[in-house]
From TrEMBL, chain A:
The protein's name: Pyruvate dehydrogenase E1 component beta subunit
Molecular function as annotated in GO: oxidoreductase activity
Gene3D superfamilies linked: 3.40.50.920, 3.40.50.970
NCBIfam families: PRK09212.1
Keywords: Oxidoreductase, Pyruvate
SUPFAM superfamilies: Thiamin diphosphate-binding fold (THDP-binding) (SSF52518), TK C-terminal domain-like (SSF52922)
Organism: Salipaludibacillus aurantiacus
SMART domains with a match to the protein in the record: Transket_pyr
Classification via Pfam families: Transket_pyr, Transketolase_C
InterPro entries: THDP-binding, Transketo_C/PFOR_II, Transketolase-like_Pyr-bd, Transketolase_C
Domain Transketolase-like pyrimidine-binding: 5-192
TrEMBL record, chain B:
Record keywords, A-Z: Oxidoreductase, Pyruvate, Thiamine pyrophosphate
Keyword Oxidoreductase: yes
Name this polypeptide is given: Pyruvate dehydrogenase E1 component alpha subunit
Cited PANTHER family: PYRUVATE DEHYDROGENASE E1 COMPONENT SUBUNIT ALPHA, PYRUVATE DEHYDROGENASE E1 COMPONENT, ALPHA SUBUNIT BACTERIAL AND ORGANELLAR
UniProt GO BP: pyruvate decarboxylation to acetyl-CoA
Gene3D superfamilies the record matches: 3.40.50.970
Alphabetized Pfam families for the sequence: E1_dh (PF00676)
Length: 344, 338
């Protein structure tokens, strides 16, 4: 039987394999090793990141390749940009994606644009790993899903895995990639388990996957919301509706074909994105399908997203902030009500 | 109680009583939160202030509701010292509608603008420019109010440290920057992450006073803050005070704290304890009797119990609160669900 490990372990394993393969791969971030220069600390007692994702890597690779940084995101993310442009292949951790507020210039104006501004004469093989997502009771400044912001910036690639298998293969591809990649890890997925092969493998960026085949409705999910889409699909099956679930896996580049082909088959599209609704990825995909797939549609495109408000702390509010299978079912019933070819 | 008599530091019996009460409130509130969190009662994560009481209290002893403070992710102590009600604070940690922020902020965003508490902060380094802004208002409106920015040793390495302090210095703003150097930022020692020996050394670069005090000694913090607050009120500009202190618990609840040497932990929890130190001082100066001090502790124990009960019995926010207070006003002309 294939090996089962967690999302978190899959990500760690990808970093470990990349570091074994290429000595230019280094890690940096706040407490990615933990306890720098604490003499009495055994390396296996080091933090290895706030969530322990990089735990143990300092033991294998040493503190020259697993660099603890001060709380200075502009400093070390900026340094990672030119560290990458001058011959290294850094994997910098931005602990929570919300902290991009402290280093957006380094990512948006420097890392993303060097190559273009320099007439193609530079490359920035930088990977930024960052945590996102609501549902952790972490409140407004530690729970956002900001992948849409990065997707809007030319020069950056954006990856949002939904399973341990994908996380490992996509992270290895991101590290191998010669462009800056922002790799989003949903903090509520870290303990989710799945089958992950032991060896080195990559999943190409820009290639989505059909997570569940179906014929009557397409549901596109992003990150953790792929699971919400699958939960909804299961309930729809019970109601006699055959849904297809698609995971784009990378948002930039975006696998347009997998979405358009699916909508051509099903004629209906729901997009589930837990980011706020304005200018998010659901909007982007809806525009894509309205533009290139209008003739395939039998019903209006529906988006299931968070509302236009920050992430609340109170569990009572955060639970209703997030998309849910129930919310997906509600929009599907609206779509199908208007449609005489299907009964629900 | 011997009202109006003062010690060398100018601490009256009345002030000592207030300070000891606030320090006890912080300690007992945090110990309770530690227990509740351990029982799985509280959602999210919490960063506890226990051990650092002398800093928040020694500084806030010079402030009133017109003065502002900016705080950190470790903000419960600043809240209490600035006069926030324990009931509303505890309810906020529970995510209840009766919380200081109606349950929307939680531990890391706890705030009470009426009391001049401009919020705990989830963003390390967030407070420097925010304090400068409040001080600019005071300067332009001539209110005489002072702004205090509490920040950690880790935050001292964030870019906003430079921008906020430089701005306050060139505009001569009434700000007091208070470093809470507890030796660690998460698991990273101050010495590793900082190029300076003391955070206060950096004051020189901004041409502002920089003072180092024993942050476990409420009287030392009180004396240093008095000078800095007066200076700010007199229009003489910002200062920086570095308080050498220690957090008794981990970075957040659940941190095994392996990076802390055992002897260090032990000495801070025992002989160097800030409450013990202040209590001994009060006794040696004859400001309050043992019975009076015990009475304060008992009242605080009770107040914390009351706060927990209040929080437990309060309702959760209502569904419609989710999208309330994003803006003051927002005309959408939307069509609702289509
Ligand atoms: C901009 C930003 N970077 C990183 C973090 C994560 N973080 C939260 S608290 C903390 C350590 C802060 O250390 P310090 O300033 O010394 O305060 P202390 O926790 O010791 O009170 C870190 C790294 C954050 N909240 N914001
Ligand atoms: Mg600290």
């Amino acid at each position: 039987m294939a090996r089962i490990i967690t999302f978190s372990e899959a990500i760690k394993e990808a970093m470990q394999l990349a570091m074994r393969k290429d000595e230019n791969v280094i890690l940096m971030g706040e407490d990615v090793a933990g306890g720098a220069e604490v003499d009495h600390l055994q390396d296996d007692e080091a933090w290895g990141g706030v969530m322990g994702v990089t735990g143990g890597l300092v033991q294998e690779f040493g503190r020259d390749r697993v660099l603890d940084t001060p709380i200075a995101e502009a400093g070390y993310i900026g340094a990672a940009v030119t560290n990458a442009a001058t011959g290294m292949r850094p994997v910098a951790e931005l602990m929570f994606n919300d902290f991009i507020g402290s280093c957006l210039d380094e990512v948006m104006n420097q890392g993303a644009k060097l190559r273009y501004m320099f007439g193609g004469k530079a490359k920035v093989p930088l990977t930024i790993r960052t945590m996102h997502g609501a549902g952790f009771r972490a409140a407004a400044q530690h729970s956002q899903s900001l992948y849409g912001m990065f997707t809007a910036i030319p020069g950056i690639k954006v990856v949002v895995p939904s399973t341990p298998y994908d996380a490992k293969g996509l992270l290895l591809a991101a590290i191998e990639d010669d462009d800056p990649v922002v790799f989003f890890e949903d903090k509520t997925l870290y303990n989710v388990k799945g089958e992950v092969p032991e060896g080195y493998y990559t999943i190409p960026l820009g290639k989505g996957e059909i997570k569940l085949p179906g014929n009557e409705l397409t549901i596109v999910g992003i990150g953790k919301q792929v699971q919400t889409a699958l939960d909804a699909a299961e309930q729809l099956t019970a109601k006699g509706i055959d849904a297809e679930v698609i995971d784009p896996r990378s948002l930039s580049p975006l696998d347009e074909s997998i979405i358009l082909d699916s909508v051509m088959k099903t004629g209906r599209l729901v997009i589930v994105d837990e980011a706020n609704p304005r200018c998010n990825v659901a909007t982007d995909i809806a525009a894509l399908v309205a533009d290139k797939g209008f003739d395939y549609l039998d019903a209006p495109i529906k988006r299931v997203t968070a509302p236009h408000c920050p992430v609340p702390f109170s569990p009572a509010l955060e639970d209703i902030y997030l998309p849910s299978a129930e919310k997906i079912l509600k929009v599907v019933s609206e779509m199908i009500e208007d449609d005489t070819t299907v009964t629900m | 109680m011997k009202v109006s008599e003062e010690t060398v530091q100018g601490i009256t019996a009345e002030k000592a009583s207030w300070m000891y009460q606030k320090m006890c409130e912080i300690r007992k509130f945090e110990d309770k939160v530690h227990d509740l969190f351990g029982q799985g009662v509280l959602p999210g994560f919490v960063h506890l202030y226990a051990g650092e009481e002398a800093v928040a209290v020694g500084v806030c002893a010079h402030l009133d509701d017109n003065d502002s403070i900016t705080s950190t992710h470790r903000g419960h102590g600043h809240c209490i010292a600035k006069g926030c009600e324990l009931d509303g604070m505890m309810a906020e940690l529970f995510g209840k509608a009766t919380g200081l922020c109606n349950g929307k902020g939680g531990s890391m965003h706890i705030a009470d603008v009426e009391k001049g508490m401009l919020g705990a902060n989830g963003i390390v380094g967030g407070g420097f420019p925010l304090a400068a802004g409040a001080a600019l208002t005071s300067k332009l409106k001539k209110t005489g109010a002072v702004a205090v920015c509490f920040f950690g040793d880790g935050a001292g390495n964030h870019g906003t440290f430079h921008e906020g302090i430089n701005l306050a210095a060139i505009w001569n703003l009434p700000v007091v920057f208070v470093a809470e150097n507890n030796g660690y930022a998460e698991a990273t020692p101050f010495e590793y992450a900082s190029s300076c020996t003391n955070i206060a050394d950096r004051a020189k670069g901004y041409n502002i006073p920089g003072e180092i005090v024993d942050g476990k000694d409420a009287t030392a913090v009180y004396a240093a803050a008095q000078k800095a607050v007066e200076r700010a009120r007199n229009g003489e500009g910002p200062s920086l005070i570095e308080c050498k202190t220690y957090r008794n618990y981990g970075h957040f609840e659940g941190d095994a704290q392996k990076y802390k040497p055992d002897v260090e932990k032990k000495s801070h929890l025992e002989e160097l304890d800030a409450l013990r130190k202040f209590r001994e001082y009060i006794a040696s100066e004859g400001l309050l009797t043992d019975a009076e001090l015990d009475d304060i502790e008992e009242r605080v124990d009770h107040a914390v119990e009351v706060a927990v009960k209040f929080a437990e019995e309060s309702p959760m926010p209502a569904e419609e609160d989710l999208t309330k207070d994003v803006y003051v006003s927002y005309e959408t002309h939307d069509r609702g669900d289509v």
